[in-house]
Amino acid sequence: MTAGSEERSVSSEERSAAQAEIGRMRHRIDEIDEQIVGLLAERTAAVRILTEHKTDEDAVRSTDRVRQVLARVEMLAERHDMPPQIARETYRSLIDQLTTMQLERLAQRRGTPA
Ligand SMILES: O=C(O)C(=O)C[C@]1(C(=O)O)C=C[C@H](O)C=C1
């Protein structure tokens, strides 16, 4: 007996209905991505403005603030019934990139390499 041989066969109608649903959901995902990237661009612009008021690396890294943001997005994810670790890891990666961006800007203002 081969793996999966007990599964009932799927009709071609079911297969094409499944394909249609996948196509609809991918279209929806593309629309959501457009909103997400737009919001991320706004968030990045806000971080760029705030960066201009930071004068040292500790201020750029703001570890207490990072902890606060990560805890908050986990809480928000739970409220929206999504796995909190997805929100946490997504923001961890976002904040890492934004920290690098800020360190580069700080170095540029100081006239030294990051
Ligand atoms: O709040 C700050 O000071 C930021 O620089 C923004 C931000 C964030 O993306 O939320 C980015 C880097 C860390 O320093 C902390 C938080």
From TrEMBL:
Report the record's Gene Ontology biological process terms.
chorismate metabolic process; salicylic acid biosynthetic process
Where is the region Disordered? 1-24
Boundaries of each Chorismate mutase domain copy?
A: 16-106
Q: Which Pfam families match?
A: CM_2
Query: Where is this chain compositionally biased, Basic and acidic residues type?
Result: 1-16
The keyword NADP is assigned to this record: no
Which keywords appear in this protein's UniProt record, sorted alphabetically?
A: Isomerase
Recorded hits in InterPro entries, A to Z, give: Chorismate_II_sf, Chorismate_mutase-related, CM_dom_sf, CM_II_prokaryot
Q: Which GO terms describe its molecular function?
A: chorismate mutase activity
This one is known as: Chorismate mutase
| Organism encoding this protein | Cryptosporangium aurantiacum
